[in-house]
Amino acid sequence: MSSPAAGAVRVVRADKGSVLVVPEGGGEAVRAVLDRDGLAPLDDGRAVPTVGDWVLVDEADGSPHVRQVLTRSSALVRDSAGGTSREQVLAANVDIVLVVEHLDPDPDLGRVERLLTLAWRSGARPVVVLTKADLVPDAEAMTREVERAAIAVDVHPVSAATGDGLDPVRALLAPGVALVVVGPSGAGKSTLVNALAGRGVMATGDRRASDGRGRHTTTHRELVPLHGGAVLIDTPGIRGIGVVADADALDTTFADVAELVALCRFADCHHDGEPGCAVVAALESGDLDRRRYESWRKLVREAAYQARRADSHLAAQERARWKKVTQEYQRGMRGAGRPWR
Ligand SMILES: Nc1nc2c(ncn2[C@@H]2O[C@H](COP(=O)(O)OP(=O)(O)OP(=O)(O)O)[C@@H](O)[C@H]2O)c(=O)[nH]1
Ligand SMILES: [Mg+2]
Ligand SMILES: [Zn+2]
């Protein structure tokens, strides 16, 4: 995706209170300050600029300041328990989300489904990359198993160690395309970024010396411009990622389950033993995998919880707004010297 406006620059790294930006087509990175709580206007409302954002910058008091975050064509959003906004935009304006999962140890299919949902929700296209193919005897069979959990998504087994399987991933790197890698710590995201960049841009972790658990080699998100004109965003490993899911994203990730749900006799079927439930029937016949069913249930519950939480957040905002309006009205009446009651 090329720049959406003349003079826009791209955020390659976001820090507290400032961002690092580069002009389209490359050039020297410049640090630009964020005013007022680290927020900048985004059409309506305000936004914390994130990696991948296009922003307008101008000089004030001799230093560059972010003036505007341009409307995002896509946004990879995670649910973050802390903070005020509850949602964190991991990357903006990406075209492809590379869901990176290792083949050794065994891939976690539930995690792949979770990250695919995150990706579908973002508006970008997901592609699964299975790393460390050199460490397992039958990468092809494992790939087929992951493919069953990744409906309509390309799945590529690769080895950064031997270079095997990288060509189909390289083929995604068209000029102007932005990709982001997501996946657990130690999956080989930075190693993949380096392999695709053809140089050691990101530090990678060697975990052989320790058990490596909970160690994150990459600690910040960073946009890496590649020679061919594509850009690649590396991210730190995400543990227990909360997805910001919606029904559409879930129905896309779990298209097979959604098809069954449509066949249930009752429109409000809970798939909990009601008569005529196509989901339970598929479970019993073995057409639907119990693991996949549980994974789907879990994400549906999470999405419902988020929707309720967002609703109550909106309701609280609305109450606060009316309180303010009422107070202003009362103040105005008093100012006019009339009784306000
Ligand atoms: N054998 C083999 N090792 C790999 C491959 N890809 C990555 N590794 C190794 O896996 C370890 C972790 O790789 P990283 O690229 O640092 O993993 P990461 O996903 O960036 O991890 P975080 O930055 O913590 O999120 C390193 O020791 C890599 O050398 C691969 O294809 N084959
Ligand atoms: Mg890394
Ligand atoms: Zn049902």
Automatic annotation (TrEMBL):
Highest taxon listed in the record's lineage: Bacteria
Cofactor entry: Zn(2+)
Annotated keywords: Cytoplasm, GTP-binding, Hydrolase, Metal-binding, Nucleotide-binding, Ribosome biogenesis, RNA-binding, rRNA-binding, Zinc
EC number(s) per entry: 3.6.1.-
EC class (word): hydrolase
Pfam families, alphabetized: RsgA_GTPase
Binding-site residues for Zn(2+), renumbered to this chain: 264, 269, 271, 277
Location(s) in or outside the cell: Cytoplasm
Cofactor binding annotation: Binds 1 zinc ion per subunit.
Claim: GTP-binding is one of the keywords in the record: yes
Residues covered by the EngC GTPase domain: 92-239
Keyword DNA-binding: no
Major location category of this protein: cytoplasm
Stored InterPro entries: G_CP_dom, P-loop_NTPase, Ribosome_biogen_GTPase_RsgA, RsgA_GTPase_dom
CP-type G domain: residues covered: 86-241
Binding residue positions for GTP: 131-134, 183-191
Record's function text: One of several proteins that assist in the late maturation steps of the functional core of the 30S ribosomal subunit. Helps release RbfA from mature subunits. May play a role in the assembly of ribosomal proteins into the subunit. Circularly permuted GTPase that catalyzes slow GTP hydrolysis, GTPase activity is stimulated by the 30S ribosomal subunit.
Family recorded in the similarity comment: Belongs to the TRAFAC class YlqF/YawG GTPase family. RsgA subfamily.
Subunit record text: Monomer. Associates with 30S ribosomal subunit, binds 16S rRNA.
Name of the molecule in the record: Small ribosomal subunit biogenesis GTPase RsgA
Organism: Cellulomonas edaphi
Name of the gene encoding the protein in the UniProt record: rsgA
